[in-house]
Amino acid sequence: MEHYSMNLTLKVWKQKNATAEGNFETYQVKDISSEMSFLEMFDVLNEQLIHEGKDPIAFDHDCREGICGMCSMYINGRPHGPWHGTTTCQLHMRAFKDGDTIVVEPWRANAFPVVKDLVVDRSAFDRVIQSGGYISVNTGVSVDGNTIPIERENADKAFAAAACIGCGACVAACKNSSAMLFVSAKVSHLALLPQGDVERKNRVLNMVAQADKEGFGSCTFTEACEAVCPKEISITNISRLNSEYLKAGLSADKAH
Amino acid sequence: MLDSKIPAGKLEDKWTDYKGHCKLVNPANKRKLEIIVVGTGLAGASAAASLGELGYRVKAFCFQDSPRRAHSIAAQGGINAAKNYQNDGDSVFRLFYDTIKGGDYRSREANVHRLAEVSVNIIDQCVAQGVPFAREYGGLLNNRSFGGTQVKRTFYAAGQTGQQLLIGAYQALERQVALGSVQMFSRHEMLDVVMIDGKARGIIARDLISGKVERHFGHAVLLCTGGYGNVFYLSTNAMGSNVTAAWKAHKRGAYFGNPCFTQIHPTCIPVTGDHQSKLTLMSESLRNDGRIWVPKKQNDPRKANDIPEDERDYYLERRYPAFGNLVPRDVASRAAKERCDAGYGVGTTKQAVYLDFRYNLINKYGRAEASKHGIENPDQETLVRLGKEVVKEEYGNLFDMYEKITGENPYEVPMRIYPAVHYTMGGLWVDYELMTNIPGLYALGEANFSDHGANRLGASALMQGLADGYFVIPYTIGNYLADEIATKPIPITHEAFEKAEAGVTERINKLMNIKGSQSVESFHKRLGKIMWEKCGMARNAKGLTEAIGEIQQLKKEFWSDVRIPGGIEEMNTELDKAGRVADFMELGELMCKDALERNESCGGHFREESQTEEGEALRNDDQYMYVAAWESKGDSNWQLHKEELKYDMIKPTQRNYK
Ligand SMILES: Cc1cc2nc3c(=O)[nH]c(=O)nc-3n(C[C@H](O)[C@H](O)[C@H](O)COP(=O)(O)OP(=O)(O)OC[C@H]3O[C@@H](n4cnc5c(N)ncnc54)[C@H](O)[C@@H]3O)c2cc1C
Ligand code: SF4
Ligand code: FES
Fold first, then answer.
1. What is the pLDDT of residues B73-95, one digit of tens each?
2. Is B86 on the interface with A (CB under 8 A)?
3. Is B372 helix (H, G, I), strand (E, B) or coil?
4. How much is the pTM?
5. CA–CA separation, B509 vs B532, rounded Å?
6. What domains are there in chain A, each with its CATH number?
7. For burial by CB atoms within 10 Å, which of A40, A99, B366, B463 has the most?
8. CA quadruple B219, B225, B228, B231: dihedral positive or negative?
9. What ipTM describes this predicted complex?
10. CA dist list (Å): A73 to A12, A39, A61, A119, B160
């Protein structure tokens, strides 16, 4: 792999806090190596800003391995940038070339208010999980793990859905700011397993209701979410959610 | 005196007896007791959820925006448990034995035995929560093998085991939040322990969004705040992982156990340049099929694939014929360093060796597939194509990650790898009940020193974190809190809270007022460099002594010239980082001191002065069969306490992998 170096223009959203008005600031960065990750390029920029006595840009990140779901930049009109199935932290600078201008914004959604610069508040996702995204089992009362065999195909599908990292890119990509891909991933994960069967009806009703309450929009099946999901969560999960929801709605006498 | 409170009786009965006799708190009283849990990784989330279920009132804290994002999420390979589902001779005793031996005889028998005992419950618990472990076609749980063992006992979920386990614990935690038994404080950083009458009674925490400093009372405080590998700047840990919580406790009197015991993992993507912010692990499971080699010629300029077979040095297979590429982590790491130092390293920086899948891809998998498909005399191309499919199934996500980072395709060219800091066996000293020497202050998970001795086996950290949180602390904390039922919640206006808060605020102001010229990051990098060069894979008295001086100097420079932009009462990630780096510097000094004091090699701690003729680690059981527990005595000043290790069940021997 040939490495190269590049100079770039960055237009980055700056916003002091949740109530302040934000705006784009333009920055120049020089001698960026194609070997760097996108966030390492931001590290370089921030070091430069600190050196100049300016405020660095706040952004969320932690694992830098594509698994914690913390990083969340809207890069050139696309959540997590140009690479398919990739988080912001795993995007590398060889995706860009010398002289490029890169525009970076936070996730935009009513349910994800901006905290500062590129940092948003995604606690709505935690509250959606609180509304039913679990199996109600207390510690220490479980039967042996091999008591209930699970068909390999269902286990694999459950795992694929459970791979969601809760990053919120699906919401950011959706014109309705719908959280349906996220919700459906959790509903599917648990509905596909025998352990999750008991609570499946209330779970889907409550989680969808909570997502509404948080201000996420409704799903009109544009598939924009699937296209940007870094974990390639399949839109078939939304179909499964819809059928779970219908079944639950028809038979449920209670939803709280 | 250090009292490890190990129960009397036979090793295999200790935990059962303990549970049968420890004090209990009745449900009505539990509701009156408040517990603070700092950290919501595997250890903290499992503890907070379980204690909430029991009826205690729990307050949980983490610095990420959600408990689901703790560093535990990044664990790849798997979790051990003595289930013996493979019928290959596994047992609680074997898991116990492997862990003690893997730790090079520097851990406590009683703790490790308990860990092996509860390991089986962890799997049951996780399955019940809906953790989608890998399964066989018959629907039963699958296992893979890991280093340092001869049985298949590792449960896994592709290369995302930590993620799936943490999501399970996170969901259990969120369920308790919904039920009101746990109150969650995300984006909060604990900055001090509050002590009243010699007991831990609360914490001071900073809201990382508003910057406001808060006081929180608890009848007991649990630190589940992870490891401190980031003292080396570059490590496989998440960017935010830090020692601050444990360090503040240490400054309040909690002893720090074996601080120098660091695990350096042999297979990580190497450093490419100064811009690098972290290193990425390539799971240990890859060593099952990857062969490690360097060119036989020094400074060989040729590309890997242009070097013919007989000019490659498979140095692990050469040096350790019995274990080959599957020697334990510490041994593999040192061997890679030895080759690179001798001038045989590869890649632009020459600080890398090859991990090559080509041989097994073609000869093992390619041929097996060809034979399955009835292809006679398959050509090279067919073998490669067939082999690739199998390798993809086994390691696909790791290969993709490697390609994203390096831009090279590991199916075609060998991976370049080098050892990197990965895990810290050291941590807060705790007794059998996971309590530090401060009454009411506990440490769980990677934050404590307890179970892995001088070297941790793969897939055992997840096991320990969940054992501590789900199955140990719910019992042991009752034994303490039973005597606290009459203690009314102490108002946070108490002068101990006031003083602790004032101390925290003063330090923040001090940091902000330095207004120097160098960034926090630049200090962290320099600290990391000192630690890596002088307290890394190989250590000696001269280097360690120098390092102590250099760190003291760096610390002075930091406190007079660091520049932290922004304000205090706002989100200020530079300020957050500054506090952590300041603590890392103090810890770094203690690590060097501990490494200097322990003039023997054991596990991941390699003192050049103490090696065999063949360059292997040489333990000195006569002088160093103890846990080093350090007490803070003020600035750059510590007192050493020793907890002697007694082996009743296992006889320590020299490890041999030849
Ligand atoms: C890349 C990688 C792969 C790994 N793979 C494996 C594997 O396959 N198998 C295995 O067994 N082990 C593995 N490990 C090791 C294992 O992941 C960790 O040891 C383990 O997850 C640590 O869990 P923990 O709960 O102790 O801490 P963590 O998961 O690190 O959690 C720490 C928590 O403390 C909080 N915290 C820290 N400081 C503060 C503070 N001051 N105030 C408030 N909150 C704070 C954080 O927010 C977080 O919630 C791996 C490690 C790495 C780096
Ligand atoms: S579904 Fe995909 S995009 Fe949405 S939160 Fe999960 S991982 Fe992120
Ligand atoms: S920083 Fe963890 S997914 Fe990007």
1. 999 989 999 999 999 999 999 99
2. no
3. helix
4. 0.97
5. 31
6. 5-105 (3.10.20.30), 122-251 (1.10.1060.10)
7. B463
8. negative
9. 0.97
10. 10, 10, 10, 9, 23
